[in-house]
């Protein structure tokens, strides 16, 4: 069980932690896009071109007609034809970021339509300036952004590792983490391998929880760990933003 009860807000706690250097900030974290939703795989296929100075997104190639899905919940702000793309779709997500999808042969959503994470929105094609069927996928920090950010870390922060298969991640969230440089481990053990590190508060889907190593951190002690399938590992319940040491409504693993 926890030794103390948290009474401070997430923001104040994070600021205090950073100021006292109890948990070091990850380099470049201030420039990272907010982790505002649990992501879904955009499409299955092979990455044939990555993000670089002359290419604002990534290209994922597969057969014509391969389903394309929204990476997260949001509102369709563009659905139509465009020079270069042939056809394209833009979705503004609830965290303010925007994802962009191009070269499809069939669009299945319209402007102002609300979409959910993982919803089928289009089918892959080769329209516009394209040499074969593929999805050109971009991620932008806002609707006013003129330069796309690297989609690989953008999706990774939302629990999607590329290449991926639609339906392999869990849409929706039920808790939010707090703190910075929070390690996600392969098992509920301090000696287990670190599979990823959360740079800041992150909405997550906790599938189950179990007892593991006792952790002493931030003035708390707890041996409960949460399994987060989208991240492929466990984090101590100390860094789940809930006053109870054992999360209510979450089954044991």
From TrEMBL:
The keyword Acyltransferase does not apply. Residues 54-142 form the M23ase beta-sheet core domain. It holds the Pfam family Peptidase_M23. Residues 1-29 form the signal peptide. It comes from the Bacteria. InterPro entries: Cell_wall_metabolism_enzyme (IPR050570), Dup_hybrid_motif (IPR011055), M23ase_b-sheet_dom (IPR016047). One of its GO terms (molecular function) is hydrolase activity. Keywords: Hydrolase, Signal. SUPFAM superfamilies: Duplicated hybrid motif (SSF51261). CDD domains: M23_peptidase. Its EC number is 3.4.-.-. This is M23 family metallopeptidase. The lineage of its organism: Bacteria, Bacillati, Actinomycetota, Actinomycetes, Kitasatosporales.
């Amino acid at each position: 069980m926890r030794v103390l009860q948290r009474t401070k807000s997430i923001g104040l706690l994070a600021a205090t932690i950073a100021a006292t250097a109890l948990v070091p900030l990850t380099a470049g974290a201030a420039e990272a896009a907010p982790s505002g939703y649990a992501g879904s795989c955009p499409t299955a296929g092979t990455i044939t071109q990555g993000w670089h100075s002359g290419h604002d997104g990534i290209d994922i190639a597969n057969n014509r007609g391969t389903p394309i899905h929204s990476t997260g919940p949001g509102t369709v702000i563009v659905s139509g034809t465009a020079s270069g793309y042939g056809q394209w779709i833009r979705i503004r997500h609830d965290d303010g970021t925007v994802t962009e999808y191009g070269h499809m042969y069939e669009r299945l959503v319209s402007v102002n339509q609300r979409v959910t994470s993982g919803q089928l929105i289009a089918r892959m094609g080769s329209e516009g300036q394209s040499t074969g069927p593929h999805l050109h996928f971009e991620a932008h920090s806002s609707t006013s952004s003129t330069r796309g950010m690297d989609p690989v870390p953008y999706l990774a922060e939302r629990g999607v590792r590329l290449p991926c298969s639609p339906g392999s991640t869990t849409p929706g969230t039920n808790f939010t983490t707090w703190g910075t440089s929070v390690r996600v481990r392969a098992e509920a053990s301090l000696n287990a391998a670190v599979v990823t590190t959360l740079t800041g508060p992150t909405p997550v889907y906790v599938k189950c929880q179990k007892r593991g190593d006792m952790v002493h951190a931030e003035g708390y002690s707890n041996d409960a760990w949460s399994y987060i399938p989208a991240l492929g590992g466990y984090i101590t319940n100390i860094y789940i933003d809930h006053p109870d040491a054992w999360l209510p409504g979450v089954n044991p693993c």
